[in-house]
Structures are given as structure tokens and as C-alpha cells.
Amino acid sequence: MPLLSDPAAVAGLVTREVRTGSRDGAPTRIAVARRRYPTDQADLWDALTDIDRIPRWFLPVSGDLRVGGRYQLEGNANGVVEHCDAPERFAVTWEMGPQISWVTVTLTPIEDGTELELRHEAPVAPEFWDQYGPGAVGVGWDLALVGLGLHLSSGAPVDAAEALAFPTTPEGVTFVRTAALGWAEAAVGDGDEPAAANAAALRTVDFYTVVPEDGTES
Description:
Layout lengths: L6 H5 L3 E9 L2 E12 L3 H9 L11 E3 L6 E4 L4 E8 L3 E8 L2 E12 L2 E11 L2 H7 L2 H20 L5 H6 L4 H20 L4 H16 L9
Antiparallel strand pairs: 1-2, 2-8, 3-4, 4-5, 5-6, 6-7, 7-8
Helix pairs in contact: 3-7, 4-6, 6-7
Family: Belongs to the AHA1 family.
InterPro entries: ASHA1/2-like_C (IPR013538), START-like_dom_sf (IPR023393)
Protein name: Activator of HSP90 ATPase
């Protein structure tokens, strides 16, 4: 990922919110990320949904990207396309092994661009939430939204190796820390205890930025 001259400012482009919800009678927590992009709704929709364009800023994807179809992100989540109202909104399941959560993306035209809102709703796993808070998923989406912005600004693909290594660079550590603490602040806004939320954020920073002793990326 190209060098960010001000990684904290780029992390600040995202507005973060945490909500408490429920689905099928089970409690959930919802991480909401919003970012504005200086492109029109049609171009942003195409970047998010075109099977050939998604890998230019995110991950290679295969499958059927129509409603009812299954998709597979290379080395990552898979799921079902549940809703698609082009060019405004789509919703998918986000499945990692036995864990299922739900992602909804909404695009809203604004002056000089389009606002993207991403909602990731997941069942509450208290021990995992206590350890990492919303940053566990939130920071991952923050990094993806950076890649999307870089692609939209240049039209070129983001270098996958650079993107993978970015969180371990000095600029990446600053970005991840800023984002994780932003998610902690959002969790406190939803009722989490401040000290615990900030401690979880720092564990999230370590998760994303510390290179294992064997030298391989996590």
C-alpha cells in the first residue's frame, strides 16, 4: 500500500459507531463505518460489486454475485448475497467457519461524492469482545476502505503485498492505533466501560501490527 503522508488523518476519514442489537432473539453488536469518497454513486457501486474490479482494492473473489448466490473471498470469508438494490444497497452473510455475521453496505449521493456506510453485525461472544472490542472487525474494514480510496483516486490496483505489510510499517501502526482507539470511543458511546474499551483497543493494535517471531505475517 502506498505510503500515507498522514495516516492518522486518513484513519480520521472514517466515522465509527457501535450499536447493540439482536437477531433471531440473540444479542448482537453492530460496527458501523462511514466514509465519503469523491466519486459518483455509480462508480463506487461498480468498485464494490464488479467481480473483476473488487480484487483491485480488496481480495480476489469468486462465485455468483447475484441475490441468492454464494461468494468466496480468497483466504477469507464466504457467504450468500441476500439483497441487492443497485446502486444503493447490498447485504451479504459473512461466514468464517461456523461463525456467521452480516454485512450491509449502503451508498448515498452527497455533494462532491458518495457516502459509504458499512454495517457489520455479529453475535456477541463476550470473551472475544472483552479481549478485542469492535476493533477486531472494525480495523480490518478501515484498512479495506483505505485500499478502496487509493484505487478510486488512481484507478490502479493496490499492490496486494504492500497492503498486507502495511499494518507493520510505522505509518501502518499509526493508522491502526488511531482506528482502534476510534472504535473504542464508539464502544464507550454504546455503553462499554472506557478503561476496558481502551485496553481492548490496544490488544487489537498488537493483533494487527505485531509480526510473529518466525517473521511471517499474521
